[in-house]
Amino acid sequence: MARTTHPSDHEPLYAQVAAQLLGELRDGTIPPGERLPGERELATRFGVSRETVRQALNMLRRDGQVSTDRRGSHATLSGTGAEHVPSLDFPVGAHTGEPDGCRRTTVTWETPSPEHAEALGLSPLRATLVHRYESAAADGSGLRSAVTSFSVVAVTEVEELARYRDRANGHSSAQLSRAYDWMRKAGLTLHHRDAITRLPQSVRVTRRVHDQYDRPLEITDLTVDARQDALVYEFTLPAAT
Fold first, then answer.
1. Per-residue confidence (pLDDT) for residue 75, from 0 to 100
2. What's the first-to-final CA gap in the chain, in angstroms?
3. E runs forming strands in the chain
4. For residue 115, how many other CB atoms are within 10 A of its CB?
């Protein structure tokens, strides 16, 4: 949709463009973490030169409304520091159960399931970091099991995950409960989509996580010993600032 700028206005063109972009940031048209269109597209949309667009983006960068890296510019969540963002448990559905319950977590470097490989954009037979989680009450009830596969992006760009590659033997305990915090620390904005499906004797939750560049980060399949109707919901966790 084309926007209108007025060369005759007292306000410079770049300031008019910046003001209109700021309006889109504030009303959620461009959500936090979303990558902005390229300079050429913005120039066409606003009917201005690419240099004017650059000046507008520079103005928004100075005000902390957008940030730019080698992949382009994206919206930031001004005034919201990491300490104000609730931490998410990893994996989805993780809990210790009853006080005398048990929990087991391990990591391996292996070829993920075909479904996980496809979701992460991995070529067939390519190995990656796979996390397994199990928890239950002392009497064996309330069993929860989850399998998470991480993408190449996650293992490459998140330093804490990369360290697990050499010790992913399937035997050592894996403390990945802060995996989402580590991703945010690496500058990634986390977009989650959780699909919850009722099965005959359980509930299956499939979580897919991607970053602000729409790159997959992880996929988790959680099975819970319970019954529940199907449900899908989405939310976003901004990168640490």
1. 73
2. 31
3. 66-69, 72-75, 102-110, 128-136, 144-150, 169-173, 190-198, 203-210, 216-224, 231-237
4. 12
Given phi > 0 = left and psi -120 to 50 = alpha, else beta, which region is 35?
beta
Distance of CA 69 to the CA centre of its chain: 17
201 φ, ψ (degrees, to nearest 5):
-125, 10
Between residues 78 and 115, the one the model is more confident about: 115
The overall pTM is greater than 0.85? no
Give the domains, in start order, of the chain with CATH numbers: 13-75 (1.10.10.10), 83-237 (3.40.1410.10)
Six-digit token string for 22: 């700021």
CB atoms closer than 10 angstroms to residue 132: 16
CA dist., res. 229 & res. 210, Å (int):
25
